[in-house]
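Journal club side-thread
Mid-discussion, someone asked how the predicted structure for our own chain would compare to the paper's figures. Pasting it here so we can look after the session.
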Amino acid sequence: MPGKTDKQPNTYLTYAQSGVDIEAGDAVVGLIKHHMRRTYGPRVLGQHGAFAGCFRLDYNEKLFKRNYTDPVLVACTDGVGTKVLLAVQAGILDTIGQDCVAMNVNDMIVQGAEPLFFLDYVAVHEVIPQQTADIIKGVADGCQLAGCALLGGETSEMRDVYKKGDFDLAGFAVGVVELKKAIAGPERVEAGDVVLGLASSGVHSNGYSLVREIIKQNKLRLNKVYKELDPERTLGGVLLEPTRIYVKPIIEVLHKYKVKKPISAMAHITGGGLPGNLNRSLPGDLDAKLDRKAWDVPPVFGFLQEQGNVKDAEMLKVFNMGIGYTLIVRPHFADAIQRQLSRSGETVYRIGEIVEGSGKVRL
């Protein structure tokens, strides 16, 4: 045989013996096919399993609802962080994919962009087909909520990098916005503008290193029901509540106003909380003055704060504290936008206003 010497053994090393099971990977492709296809629209071209996905950006106006005249592509990439470790511990893998989609598309709509397609990357210790399919199911669920196509992805088996049972999840999204409709950011914000806040579904996908430390120090059990937190759900169920996806309600508001621009700026409230995200939408001479009593804080935050003996300032810096997304809007349009978002199923709070300042968030 080529390359064989007298010193080599008579057995032959395989890829599976080195830690990569190609057959398991092929099985995953079959299991996730239907999850991907349920996110497809008429703009997706080509066959499942191709080397790359194809998506029509401009198209026949008779078949589709609109053409782009001056399109700007918008791209985001993000992961889920250490929330994946809680998913593994709790044995709940079919929701974490929605978190991955949400972390990308919620960033994207801040620019006024409509998500077009999404790609995922799953890195695992070992490919267990059904578990990997559960993860991808969550990604597909998130894509359906966001109205974008799950165009493709990659599953990588790396036993030397990840411990048994561990995995990581990241994603990449591409969207589009008409240039004249793009939300430019701080330069349009004015004193007197109103700050609207959309309720979060819980912790979302930031701050889980602190969450896990609180669990560890207090020996909390993910499979236990803590009645002071939720009388029906386990701690793991509460903490793994998927990140809310705000795409469709926000896009509907943006499409309602064909000429006027009542929205000055927006912000996705992630790591850094309100002070570290809403400030990114402010010019250097204005502040956002927020009333902490203006919205309801979900019980999970009080539970974590009490169990971890965490100061208020730290909670506000780490967590969203019940507000997952904000809009800065012209005061004349604030009530109408609030009503429209409420009709779309969002819980909307009028949480503050823009005042003279130095580019900070005042709580």
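Post-session note: The first helix runs from residue 22 to 37.
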